[in-house]
Amino acid sequence: MTKEKIFEFFKAKGVSDNLDFETDLFKGGFIDSLFAFEVVVFLEETFGVHLDNKDITEENFRTITSMASMIDRIRGV
Amino acid sequence: MGDKKTIKCLVWDLDNTLWDGTLLEGDDIVLREGVVDVIRELDNRGILLSIASKNEPEDALEALSRFGLLEYFLVPQIGWGPKSDSIAEIARLLNIGLDTFAFIDDQPAERAEVTFHHPEVRVYDASEYLTLPDLPEFTPRFITPDSKLRRKMYQDDLQRREVEEQFAGNSEAFLKSLNMKLTLSRVKEGDLERVEELTLRTNQLNSTGATYDYEELRSFIHSDEHLFLIAELTDKFGDYGKIGLALAERSEHALTIKLLLMSCRVMNRGIGSAFLVHLAKTAKAEGLDLLADFVSTGRNRAMYITYKLMGFEEIRQEGNWSLLKYSGAEKEYPDYLEVEVIE
Hints:
The complex is a heterodimer. By secondary structure, chain A is an all-alpha fold. Chain A contains 4 helices and no strands.
């Protein structure tokens, strides 16, 4: 479910026509600079979590799968 | 800076504030004496003006246009809702904080209603209108070419946003359609007033919140240890003016970004990325590590996230200060942005 919700967010942003769970979001230049802030706020609000500074890494944000794993880890799911 | 912050937007009531008389009651309305001078003066200083009025929108807009004043007011809110909502809507549309808003109205109840919901908005009685330009909060330290163009820039921006909505959320296609050109160049003497203005006005997209006085800023221009860059952006709708700043300090082994900031008007335009890509290239060419100071001010988390997701890692942290180090592979400028670097 986590993955699907994040997927919907990126899809709605129109970031790519052939987006999947494993797309490298940095490579496509999809996440850049301040769009990144929007992503963080979206994740925090949608999943009711707070991301610590240590959670904000390129690895955690590289793909939809890695974001979902981070969220599930924080929520202890 | 607290309540000393200068006002970025003044919201006017109309009946018995901007003009004498009540439009809806069929009065023969007359502009208050000297009000046009006040409007022109504030506009010239780069203070944005808007309207929150309980009136029939068409009649009120028609009256403003008859007085030749319509063009001065951005996103006027004329209708029957509470004025606190109107002001919140103006703040949302212009993307500026309510703590830089002022509101002028002849009705104590309207002022109280706004204060109740938004205690940070500064309110003035209509009888004070002539004195506003003399108040310190309406007196920005510098009037630069950018401040005089501010209204025009916001108008361009509102137009952009209308087009953006037609792209139905497809940000990438929208960004490409803007034909944006970013110029990064060294700060020159003539830029210093704008530079100081940017450091004072920019809170959210500011990596350290550091402010420098004019002489300090001037010394960075002439210092070999400093790389001091200013960014200017244009697109097919017009000129955004000078909207970003980077100050980096060279030491034996590293280039350290002491300050990175950009105007909220260019949020989500890739300016932060472009600066960081350029600085990473510069550091690499000089054989230096790229480091960055980040100081949390409680409002600038967006900048921390920008650094971290642009390939920086936190290597030290003390209190609200962090030292970040660029580790990432070489990155390229966002492809929707044409970047020109003037050495």
